[in-house]
Amino acid sequence: MNKMPELVLILDRLRSAHNTGNIFRIAEALGAGIAACGYTPCPPHPKLEKTAMGTDKTVEWLHFDSSKEAVEHFQRQGYTVLAAEPGGCEAWEADYACPLAVVFGNEALGVDSEALALCDGTVSLPMRGSKASINVGNAAAAICYAIDAKRHGKLKI
What we know:
The chain is an alpha/beta fold.
């Protein structure tokens, strides 16, 4: 298996190659890796390639049959694993230990319950609207940049 960076984004059964490509771009911008789980589109995939804009060739990535398998793998490697789920500690208030993996769940179903049960904690974004829904790519960007800012001392709360 590839040597993964200190930050890994675990993508749990994402349906959209466009969202996955967007998250590859986020990962590349932050020097993170990707763990694509289940039916999450992964390279080579024409729609992912289009939205990833070449980052599918530069980001370290792995594929796992399930997010549970990915969580177990990264925990064995010494990673703290957090799930991006409603009700967790707000992303800019959490403390982050590296190496770190964050699970982003299916757009309709969230993080798989077996994987969620294994996670070391949860992290979230506040939802003040009545729909309380945000695109997984947007959520990944907001959470990952909060993590990056906290890790590099740029965000003080």
